[in-house]
Design goal:
The protein is an alpha/beta fold. It contains 14 helices and 13 strands. The strands form two sheets. Strands 7-6-8-9-10-12-13 form a seven-stranded mixed beta sheet, sandwiched between helices.
Length: 344
């Protein structure tokens, strides 16, 4: 009998192993198919560029992500979100915008205050820009009108005149015999921002018989001198208007208000939650969540020129009773009843 008639004894086992390999490969292919599909879908998905003033993790980034998810947009699935964190540095926004344009983003969400918005407007007149929170865009020269912005920018506004008047009234309610109050100005923003933020606070203070004193800071290193100037000028308290810079350094500002024993009325709940006496303003995280509606409409074909800029209508009053005890100032019962939150 020749060798050719002898079959290897392991041939059947090899065939079985081969079939097992093929079956395993097929199973893995089925399991991996959705992942491959998602990766390919994400690669083709619209890109959204988001700039933020602080560092990760950011409650504002999370609020925007949550708002988008509620509208059916999921990062890594049918959209890709490109986050850029300024970490408190205004000079980073121009580079961020150039980078986002190179990535061919479909929408820019310009968070981070006036510096971020101006950088976005300067960088592109084509890519839609959504601003979650801004002052009066007409006064700032960003749009033609609130109802019909007319360009590539839209979003939400918190016009400061009424808010500033309320903050001045709150200060007067807490210290009815006070004569002087300081107003903190973000001098790192363009001069026109004073019309949005500082001038209304000064006018409101004067209307209540107070003598306002404007103190300025453009960086963290200037804050100590601003508070010292307020105290030297006889101010008994301090009104802090809206500013991305102030909001990013709220703990430092609150600490200085306590050290100099100034009754502080701040722009949003974040200040009161870290020890500020009282805050009145919009819930910024909720405005980022609401900004998702603009992104959704633009991704579905709407033009920013036709999307009216909405004015904020929801404002929160937060009072920190622990700080009131430290400063030894009584909080009127009428304010406590009105408060949306009391920190005890």
């Amino acid at each position: 009998m020749g060798d050719s008639s002898v079959k290897p004894y392991h041939t059947r086992g090899t065939e079985i192993d081969s079939r097992r390999v093929l079956i395993l490969a097929a199973v893995l292919g089925v399991l991996l198919l959705p992942l491959v599909g998602e990766a390919q879908q994400a690669e083709k998905a619209p890109r959204i560029g988001v700039t933020l003033v602080g560092s990760p993790p950011s409650p504002y980034a999370e609020a925007l992500r949550r708002g988008l998810a509620e509208l059916g947009w999921f990062d890594g699935r049918n959209i890709v979100i490109e986050y850029r964190y300024a970490e408190g540095r205004r000079d980073r926004y121009a580079a961020f915008m150039a980078d986002l344009i190179d990535l061919k983003v479909h929408v820019i969400v310009a968070g981070g205050g006036g510096s971020a918005v101006r950088a976005a407007v300067k960088a592109t007149s084509v890519i839609p820009i959504v601003v979650p929170v801004m002052g009066d865009p007409v006064v700032s020269g960003l749009v033609r009108s609130m109802a019909r912005p007319g360009g590539n920018l839209t979003g939400q506004s918190q016009v400061e005149a009424d808010i500033s008047a309320k903050r001045a009234e709150l200060f007067k309610a807490i210290l009815p015999r006070a004569e002087r109050v300081a107003v903190l100005r973000d001098s790192g923003e363009e001069p026109r921002s004073a019309q949005n933020w500082v001038d209304p606070a000064v006018a409101a203070a004067r209307s209540l018989g107070l003598r306002p004193q404007v103190v300025s800071a453009s960086g963290v290193e200037d804050l100590e001198a601003a508070f010292a100037a307020a105290k030297a000028g006889g101010a008994e308290g301090l009104i802090v208007p809206a500013s991305a810079f102030f909001n990013n350094h709220r703990q430092r500002i609150v600490d200085l208000s306590l050290r100099y024993r100034l009754v502080g009325v701040f722009e949003n709940r974040g200040f009161a939650e870290v020890g500020g006496l009282i805050s009145y303003g919009v819930n910024i995280a909720e405005m980022y969540r609401d900004a998702a509606r603009y992104v959704d409409k633009i991704l579905r074909g709407a033009k920013p020129a036709d999307l009216p800029i909405e004015q904020a209508t929801r404002f929160e009053l937060v009072i920190n009773l622990r700080t009131a005890k430290v400063l030894q100032v009584p909080i009127p019962q009428t304010l406590l009843i009105r408060a949306d939150r009391v920190v005890e």
